[in-house]
Amino acid sequence: MDARELRRMVRATGLHPHQCPPLDEPWRTWLLLGGRGSGKTFAGAVWMDVAARFRPGAVIALVGPALHDVREVMVEGEAGIKALAEPGDRPRWEAGRRRLVWANGSTAYAFSAEDPDSLRGPQFHAAWADEFCTWRKPEAVLSNLRFGLRLGPDPRLAVTTTPRPIPALRRLMAEAGTVTDRAATADNAENLSPGYIDHLTDLYGGTRLAAQELEGQVVEGEGALFRIADLKQARGSRPAELDRVVVAVDPPASAHGDACGIVVVGRRERRAFVLADRTVRGLSPGGWAAAVCRAARDFDAQEVAAEANQGGEMVRSVLGQADCPAPVALVHARRSKAARAEPVALLYEQGRVVHCGDFPALEEEMLALGCEGGPSPDRADALVWGVSRLMLEPQGEGPSVRLL
């Protein structure tokens, strides 16, 4: 897809930034997780219309929960593909062949997620999959669809859905080539009925349902260690002074591509304060080490705590070469990530950890700990190291007094 054409379409349609596919990074799958009414259907429709008009004769797949959903929502709905075009320039719907045809010969065929085998055989330049999390066999449908994405030099897939904590979604988010964007219902407030968001917030605000259906967040699933209710209650302000600040680091396992979890945590008396998520991805060791050092300088950290299981002394050496302004403490993982996170989750339940800002990517990883599937919890693991260092280790609670 040509970036200039996408930018032109953004200007012409008034898309919000979260509704535009990534322009500056390579991707094979664009996953847009959105709350109800966040404009995710409109985003998918714009992308499909651009794909059809940009490449005359393009063959496209439209996959919805059922054929009825494809026609009534994705094609002819108020935010569907036909609603985008000016009168006289709209693609026509051919009900008998279940396809949408543009004047330049591009064609989009409708498929139901209820019939995965219907995607065997056809081939496409692009595809749009809507409400992925409601499909009964999401991974079977998705695999058949991907085998058909084999036309043209750069076939791509857009997936728009309100999230649910299902393993198929967590695995999709973790796949190489997937770029995930998020959209809350409030991001599209000007296009919704007045009072709609306030009413639902009054009814469901702070609950698991609101996080999923209004904020587009992947909430906790079966076996999760952290609860959405505890994370919602953890919102707060940074205190004027902190007793100690630590930059916690979960180094990447490879030299390029993996994420380096970088989370800044402070302590004031008997509470921990999450100050920043500075996680970076796709950098060399020198690149992520520089990001760690910037975080240590920005927050005047007294220590950098880095997991030593990946790289050992190499981690200390790389940080030293980057002129780290704080002492580096290497911490060693002797238990699984989930086991290490359990006492930290208890601190959240007790209200002893405060998030001084919005950290959606970090919180989604936390909610996935203990569940099946999901991306590597680089951010969440760094947070666990930081909170544990400050609150759970013997030196974490600060000076103590012993009576003789």
From TrEMBL:
<dbReference type="InterPro" id="IPR035421">
    <property type="entry name" value="Terminase_6C"/>
</dbReference>
<dbReference type="Pfam" id="PF17289">
    <property type="entry name" value="Terminase_6C"/>
</dbReference>
<dbReference type="InterPro" id="IPR027417">
    <property type="entry name" value="P-loop_NTPase"/>
</dbReference>
<protein>
    <submittedName>
        <fullName>Phage terminase large subunit-like protein</fullName>
    </submittedName>
</protein>
<keyword id="KW-1188">Viral release from host cell</keyword>
<feature type="domain" description="Terminase large subunit gp17-like C-terminal">
    <location>
        <begin position="248"/>
        <end position="388"/>
    </location>
</feature>
<dbReference type="Pfam" id="PF03237">
    <property type="entry name" value="Terminase_6N"/>
</dbReference>
